[in-house]
Amino acid sequence: MTNLSGFYKLNAEERLNLIKKKYSLSKEEVEILKNTGALSISTADRMIENVVSTFHLPFALANNFVINGKEYLIPMVLEEPSVVAAACKAAKLSLPAGFTSDADEPVMIGQIQIMGIKDTENAKKMFEEKKAEILQIAKTYAVQIEKFGGGIKALNARVLESIRGKIFLVEFDVDVRDAMGANTINTILEGVAPSIIQFIGGTIRLRILSNLAVKRKVRAKVIWKKELIGEDGVEGVLDGYALAASDIFRCSTHNKGIMNGIDAVGIATGNDWRAVEAGAHSYASLNGYKPLTHYEKNKEGDLVGSIELPLPVGTIGGAINTNPLSKIALKILGVKSARELAMAMACVGLANNFAALLALSTTGIQKGHMKLHAKNIAVLAGASTPEEIDSVTEVLGENKNFSLDFAKQTLEKVRGSK
Ligand code: MEV
User: Fold this and answer.
1) pLDDT of 156-192, one tens digit each?
2) In angstroms, how far apart are the furthest CA atoms of the chain?
C-alpha cells in the first residue's frame, strides 16, 4: 500500500490497525483513538468554563498527499461528508509529483492601542527616542519564546484617525516559533504597555494579537495533468475559478470550500480554527474579497493550481497539549514545525478547492454527497452487514429515493432475496 492507497476500502478498525503499525502507536494511543471519550471530562473542565460533557466529531485520515517530496497522512476532523474523499482524490490526481509548498517564518503581529494623546506628533518622536528602552522592557516578557529561538523582531508605531479621535497604535512583530502565538504576544503586550505610556502618555486600551497574520503566510502549488483530469476538467476548473474571481457571492463559497480542508486539519491538530478563518478571510479581502487560490494553464495545457494565505497555527501550546487526540494527530501527520503544519494545511485547502471546482464544473457534487447520504439512510433503516449496506445504498441511488421508508422496504427485499 504506497501512501495507503485503497485506505478507503478498509473498515475503521482495519484502518486503525494499519496506522498503528505504520506510526508505531503505543497501546495507550490506540486506546485513545478507539475510545471516543479520549478527552476526559476533568481535562475538558480545565480547558473552558461551565463544562457538562465533551463533543465528538469524526476523525479521518486523508491519504495520497506528497508535499515537497514527502508522503503525508493528514488528519481531518469534520462533520461534512465528501470533504475527506475530495481531498484524497485531488491529492491522488497530483501524483507522482504532488505539491510543493513553503511558509514564511512564524512572525505574528501584536497591537497596543493608546488613546487620549493630544500631540501625537510629539508622542511619535518620544516613542522613537525611547524605542530601544521599550524593546528592552518588552524582551523581559519574551524570555520563554527566546529560549526556543523566537522573540521580538520589530517595533513600530503609527497614528490612525478614528471615530473616537486619534489612535496611537504600537505594533510588535514577534517570531513565535512553533506556537500559534496568542499567549506569547498578549503577554508581551500587556507587560510592556504601562511602560510605553510612561514615556508618551495616554491611556492603554486594547492589547491583542492580529489574526491577519500577513507576515506568516504559506504557499502551495501543484500541477494537475490534463491526461488525468481531461481537457474539459482543466477548462471547467478555470471557468469556475473565473467566476469566483469576478463575483463575491461565488467567491465566498469558493473560499469556504478551501477552508473545509484547512479547518478540518486545524481542528484535528488542536488549533484555533476561528483564528485561521479570521486570518484567511481578512487576507482574502485586502484588495476587495478575492479567491485564496489561483489557477492557470501552463504551455503543456495542464492545470496549475496555487494558494497563498496566512496561517496562524502551532504544534505546541494551547489545546494541542491538553487534547490527547491532537497530539496523536500531530504524530501521524509527522510535521516537525508549525511551518510544516501550515504547509500541509495549505495543500489540503488547495486540494479541496480543486476537487470542488472539478466536480461542480463537470458532474456536479450531489452524486457524491447523495452516495454517502444513502449509506447513512441504509444504516438507519437497519442494514447491518457491508453487503446489506452496499445493496440498499445502490438501490436508493438508482431510484434517487433517499426516504427512510423506501430504505426499509429495500432492506426487506434484499433480505428476502437471499
Ligand atoms: C461545500 O462545503 C463546499 C463547496 O460549496 C465549495 C465550492 O462550492 O467550491 C462544494
Assistant:
1) 999 999 999 999 999 999 999 999 999 999 999 999 9
2) 89
pLDDT at 366 over 80: no
Residue 21 corresponds to which cell in the numbers above?
503499525
Q: Which domains does the chain have, with CATH numbers?
A: 2-47 (no CATH), 59-97+218-363 (3.90.770.10), 107-209 (3.30.70.420), 368-416 (1.10.8)
Q: How far apart are the first and last CA of the chain?
A: 34
Q: Which helix (H) or strand (E) holds 222?
A: strand 217-224
Q: What is the 8-class DSSP label of residue 316?
A: B
Instruction: Give which of 289, 202, 283 is closest to 253, Cα–Cα.
Output: 289
pLDDT tier at 2, thresholds 50, 70, 90: low
Output the pLDDT for position 1.
45
Distance from Cα 353 to the centre of ligand 1, integer Å: 8
- Ligand 1 surroundings by CB, under 6 angstroms: 80, 253-254, 256-257, 260, 356, 360, 365
Distance CA 233, CA 43 (A): 48
pLDDT confidence of residue 36: 61
* CA dihedral of 177, 179, 184, 186, whole degrees rounded to 10: 120
Nearest CA to ligand 1 atom 9: 254
The Cα angle at residue 30 between residues 81 and 24, in degrees rounded to 5: 105
Distance 252 CA to ligand 1 centre (A): 9
